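Note to self: the last two entries modelled the partners one at a time, which told us nothing about the interface. This time every component goes in together.
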Amino acid sequence: MQSNRTRLDRFMSRQLGIKRQAIRPILAQGRIRVDGCIATDVQQAIDQFSHVSFDQKILQNKQPNYVMVHKPRGVVCATKDPRHTTLIDILGVDLLGAPETYQLHIAGRLDFNSTGLVLLTNDGRWSRRLCSPTNKIEKCYRVDLEKPINENYINAFSKGMYFKYEDIFTAPVKLKIIGSHSAEVRLIEGRYHQIKRMFGRFQNKVLQLHRLSIGNLALEHTLLPSQSRKLNCKEVTDIF
Ligand code: URA
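The predicted structure of the combined assembly is written out below.
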């Protein structure tokens, strides 16, 4: 997703269909307001959530939205799909209203049969920050396996694994054994089918994969499969 930041003169020139040079005199007349204040600088940064008005006319007034969903099995992490139920389908339009719902994108997908916490937003900067491995935001999964696991897995996961197709080494992955056939896995990146491929090195099939948390945001037990709710301001900022 591209950055939505631009300069005030570029934004206004696009909105009013006039040359950028024509914006400076309009600005000097105090006719443009950004987030409630009279704008004075043509270089002022405008992002997708800046409130911008010209005289009495509102040019932009978009609210950021952040939602958590408990993804059930058999739902595709996409906004549109011709064959399968999507996360947007199960979210419905009651939570945010139709236009806002269709502007959401998914911040970190889960596979078709994986379950658990998925976040959606219309804020591209927030989702990029969340998904970038450089920010080291841990995602925690409970994994149920076909065969028993042992201490060798812990070592192999913590060293990282080479993925030939992408020609990369995975970042270290924390694995905690929580049962003979189950583990808690903590990742800071999200390579394609990463967890399944890592257990695949041991010819051990993942039977169930459930995302419990992203950063310090956990899926609460009261949010049942297919249910969703908005995040509050504290959750949105504290996740980093
Ligand atoms: N790793 C996987 O293999 N699948 C997921 O859904 C998430 C992480």
